[in-house]
Specification:
Pfam families: DEAD, Helicase_C, PriA_3primeBD, PriA_C, Zn_ribbon_PriA. By secondary structure, the chain is an alpha/beta fold. It has 19 helices and 28 strands. It is globular and about 85 Å long.
């Protein structure tokens, strides 16, 4: 008897429940039900001594277990439509590919508050959602939105998209579209028009952004354009009640537009018609704990399942997406020019080796840079100074005994934060007051080494008295509403110089900024991570893209990007100076092809953590020995590298060791991982002292 037949008449049902990884229960479990249950229904079931939420899962039950040994379900969450078969397919694929249990992933992406509701509470929530949806539909715009005139490239891109939208749901899934447009070329307008066309067809639209701080800004753009269209956001900054309401609105089809960060790729959207992934290259789309999924890759897979278009937009596409477009797997649409005739900023590479070598010369705020900032201030232009390190200084230092402010719990330095006089570890959170003297030798003269955004802000205020300076980083935007207020001040022209980390380089449409400076970007050029140059190039291109976005403001003077570097001759900076992503991508892909790195190979990382590094290493050595003995590893071109400590080896007194697996075939790597996982669970039980292990498929940071 098939599962659908069983559900129709009651009897045996498969249920996905959140089982712990060490239990070895990775698939759905069988239960008994007296009533008919459609796949995707939310129910409550017993597991051991606990009562859990579960999802009736499509597929065949395991007939090997006698019915009298099965436990009955405890209840059904009435009034909620079942999750769709395609949603279940997406979860099943993601769980299999990223090596997690189906139930663990399926339940973790549902709103936590949903698990706590009984039938009465759910009905109350559903009434509130219906009332909210009615209020949204009743909104009317003060005036019809003024639509900007499209460029020829935007018109061509939309014509291609319209053709794919008309084919949505056809026999074959449309190819993913890589929208490659320089910063300020109007990618957001293409998203808005494509969303408008999908909504006109009665479909829902999913728009993904990399960072939470971009969601309110994009939400405002969509709300302005689509008054009367119910729009919700899904991200981790929402309260549990907000997340539940927004998820229910999307699941019931009442929310037509869903904007969110990586978690939103799992939103239940029964009438999905278009998926947009903005800044598709951004590493924030990769989850770094639990199920380490890539929301961008799953967005592409989900669009294929639903047979709807997916737009991947970026000025600096990931090399994987660029390679897919080169190979014909993706269609590439180009927006090569800025809207309104605005010019891209001129990039000036300032050679730090030309500075005089003498004590007291600042290597962050050089005299020529300060002069350039003064000129912009005199013209009434805004400037942006970018440094991807928060805090006052990366470390405090004693010149007598060479003590540095290391963290007692991590193999990292504690950062000096001058505002609250603390030394704070950005890895484990350990914080204490700055000592009045060196804790080792008692020297009173301990001083900061290096600089972060806090110190940069202070030095700018000293060097440019009268300039209105604002700092935006994780320290200044902790409280709700702070980020919006600071961005509002920048947009209103109440700030002359904006200082910040990568938070301010992504997606923001600053109309008044004419000058951008990157003061210390060289570190990533010599990283052991092969993806570091790609990340640096994207970050600098995005930072440059904040300047000169308004063609009218350019009448004050040409926009400029200033890069202070000790290596101006480096190929990365030379490509940046020409705004030549294509040359940079060609160079990087050639290097990766020669080294056999992604996208020309496929990687997985096995990580292990223990109080003693030797315990973690012994576990990984045993895991490697088992894997190397398997035919899958011997027959395929597969390399299992020796275990090594992670770049920050100790965090919160836990030692972290990793082992890289490289395969020429994605399928072969997946087959090995499926065989390996049960064995890893058994090995953990043998290696006493091992705290946890995890597999990261397609890792971004190595």
């Amino acid at each position: 008897m098939s599962e659908l037949q069983a559900s129709a008449s009651g009897g045996r049902v498969r249920v996905a429940v959140d089982t712990p990884q060490h239990s070895g229960l990775t698939g759905p479990l069988d239960y008994l039900s007296e009533q008919a249950l459609a796949p995707g229904s939310l129910i409550r079931v017993p597991l051991g001594k606990r009562e859990l939420m579960g999802i009736v899962w499509p597929g065949e039950s395991d007939q090997a277990t006698a019915a009298e040994l099965l436990r009955p379900i405890l209840g059904v969450l009435e009034g909620l439509p079942p999750l769709s078969a395609r949603w279940c397919e997406l979860i099943e694929f993601a769980a299999g590919y990223y090596q997690r249990s189906v139930g663990e992933l399926a339940l973790s992406v549902l709103p936590p508050q949903l698990r706590e509701l009984d039938g009465t509470q759910l009905q109350l929530r559903l009434k509130r959602v219906a009332k909210w949806a009615a209020e949204q539909a009743a909104r009317t715009p003060d005036a019809a939105p003024v639509l900007p005139t499209l460029s020829a490239a935007q018109t061509e891109a939309l014509a291609r998209l319209d053709g794919l939208l008309r084919q949505a749901g056809a026999e074959a899934a449309p190819p993913p579209l890589l929208l490659y447009g320089v910063t300020g070329s109007g990618k957001t307008e293409v998203y808005l028009r494509a969303a408008e066309h999908a909504l006109a067809q009665g479909r829902q639209v999913l728009v993904l952004v990399p960072e939470i701080n971009l969601t309110p800004q994009l939400e405002a753009r969509f709300a302005e354009r689509f008054a009367g269209v119910a729009t919700v956001s899904l991200h981790s900054a929402l309260t549990p009640a907000q997340r539940l309401r927004n998820w229910l609105a999307a699941h019931l089809g009442q929310a037509r537009l869903v904007l969110g960060t990586r978690l939103a790729v799992f939103a239940s959207l029964p009438q999905l018609g278009l998926v947009v992934v903005d800044e598709e290259h951004d590493p924030s789309y990769k989850q770094q704990d639990g199920a380490r999924y890539s929301a961008r890759d799953l967005a592409v897979y989900r669009a294929r399942l639903e047979k709807v278009p997916v737009i991947l937009g970026s000025a600096t596409p990931s090399l994987e997406s660029w390679h897919n477009a080169n190979e014909g797997r993706y269609q590439r649409l180009a927006l090569p020019a800025r809207i309104g005739g605005a010019a891209l900023p001129r990039v000036r590479l300032f050679d730090m080796k030309t500075l005089p070598v003498k004590k007291g010369v600042m290597t962050a705020l050089t005299a020529p840079l300060l002069q350039a900032l003064r000129e912009r201030l005199a013209r009434g232009e805004q400037s942006l100074v970018f440094l991807n390190r928060r805090g006052y200084a990366p470390v405090l230092h004693c010149g007598e005994c060479q003590w540095k402010s290391d963290c007692p719990h991590c193999s990292a330095w504690r950062v000096f934060h001058k505002a609250d006089r603390t030394l704070r570890c950005h890895h484990c959170g350990f914080s204490e007051r700055v000592p009045s003297a060196c804790p080792t030798c008692g020297n009173l003269d301990i001083a900061p080494l290096g600089r972060g955004t806090e110190r940069l802000e202070e030095q700018l205020a000293e060097a440019l008295p009268g300039a209105r300076i604002a700092r935006i980083d994780a320290d200044t935007t902790k409280l709700k509403g702070e980020l919006e207020a600071q961005l509002g001040a920048v947009h209103a022209g109440e700030v002359d110089i904006l200082v910040g980390t990568q938070m301010i380089t992504k997606g923001h449409d600053f109309r008044r900024i004419g000058f951008v400076a990157a003061v210390n970007p060289d570190g990533a050029l010599f990283s052991s991570d092969f993806r570091a140059p790609e990340r640096l190039f994207a970050l600098l291109m995005q930072a440059a893209g904040r300047a000169g976005r308004d063609a009218e403001a350019a009448t004050l003077g040409p926009s400029e990007m200033w890069v202070q570097t000790w290596h101006p001759e480096h190929a990365l900076y030379q490509a940046l100076a020409r705004h030549d992503f294509e040359a940079f991508a060609k160079n990087q892909l050639a290097e990766r092809a020669g080294a056999g790195l992604p996208p020309y190979s496929h990687l997985a990382l096995l990580r292990a953590e223990a109080r003693d590094a030797a315990v973690a290493k012994a576990f990984l050595d045993a895991a490697a020995a088992w894997a190397e003995a398997q035919p899958e590893a011997q027959q395929q071109q597969m390399l299992i590298y020796p275990p090594v400590p992670m770049s920050i080896a100790r965090v919160a007194n836990v030692e972290r060791v990793q082992m890289l697996v490289e395969a020429g075939s994605r399928a072969a790597l997946q087959r090995l991982l499926r065989l390996w996982l049960p064995e890893l669970g058994a090995l953990k039980r043998e290696h006493k002292g091992l705290m946890r292990w995890a597999v990261d498929v397609d890792p971004l940071a190595i």
